[in-house]
Design a protein that fits this description.
There is one protein chain. With 436 residues, the protein is an alpha/beta fold. The protein has two domains: 207 residues, NAD(P)-binding Rossmann-like Domain (Rossmann fold, 3-Layer(aba) Sandwich); 135 residues, Rossmann fold. The strands form two sheets. Strands 3-2-1-4-5-6-7-8 form an eight-stranded mixed β-sheet, with helices on both faces. The termini are far apart.
Amino acid sequence: MSFYNQLKQKLNNKTARIAIVGLGYVGLPLAIRYAEAGYKVLGLDIAQDKIDYIAAGETYIKHIPAADVQKAVANGFSATTDFTRAATADALILCVPTPLNQYREPDLSFVTNTMDSLLPYLKAGQIISLESTTYPGTTEEELKPRIESTGLKVGKDVFLVYSPEREDPGNQNFTTRTIPKVCGGSSAACKEMGIALYDQVIDQVVPVSSTQTAEMTKLLENIHRAVNIGLVNEMKIVADKMGIDIHEVIDAAATKPFGFVAYHPGPGLGGHCIPIDPFYLTWKAREYGVNTRFIELAGEVNSSMPQYVVSKVAEGLNQHKKAINGSKILVLGIAYKKNVDDMRESPSVEIMQQLKELGAEVAYSDPYVPVFPKMRRYAFDLESVELSEEMLAQYDCVLIATEHDAFDYNLIGKKSQLIVDSRGMYRETLGNLVKA
């Protein structure tokens, strides 16, 4: 029996061992889903603390219940930092970060270093799937040559696919299982194997003609959002100058039953995808002599929003005859989106940094982030403060940066000296409110 037939049979009858490489916001829920579907799952990660959490049946991601981890472990899910165990896997799914470097250029080191560390353990009859967001051509230009350097032939001995992650942390309406999964292969045989890999764990697999098409699909999805958010953020600034409530405008426009999709403004873009993905395409497009001016302009607008919010803080304090320098400012919410603990690229933190540099005494409250974590670009020795009447009264300004449902907005509205609202939580006119 050929390697193709052997592997496909294992995937179809769920005897294949699935290795998830990278157990973060994408990898952990995917591992849980494969275990739930009846596969034996091995998690690989360089972070020992994640391995310890999983072994103890605990969670390290707020929106993923510990019960889900415990159930997966009971179904045979185990995790390790020992990459030699990759040799026991039939499928290797790479879910590692793809950040930008200091020059806002793609940093593929996590992908390439991970692939290099797996090369000694590759064998005929395996499938390798990359899920990390990246520019078109990465799978063919970076992964395929590395794999074939071992003597294995892609499409014959081993199978290579690109299937972009589509996680939306904290969204209760969509799960790993119910979000359709795009999959492109390095060859026709690879694509068919990719379909077999995902078909029994995802309700709908969407095959495309190549890995490059799948890579471009992911970028289009996120650039579409980035551009439209950039548009509505710019509209917010214009509307504010005109004394118009942009949120009322959006609500009214959204009543049109065709041709309009509501996007909402905010203090900037956050998360691992939307602030970063556009730059992957603009960087790669330059190789082809193409200038992506429209995409880059949206990026400039979105990147400028933290500074705009800081200017609204200054405006509000000025109305109270105060300066930012020396004022006590409480930032509500430092995760990048509501009801999650994910702080990657959070605009809240950039706002905190700018306020600190202007001389403010900055504190924060976030039920999902009890202690400010170590970050590459920011250093705050802070813990989340508990909201109360007494606590709110201590601050010259309370800035709503992330609209967690757990916040008591009635209390905040009544007891804060000054509120700067960057999320449109207050539609009514308050004497202590500045809309940002």
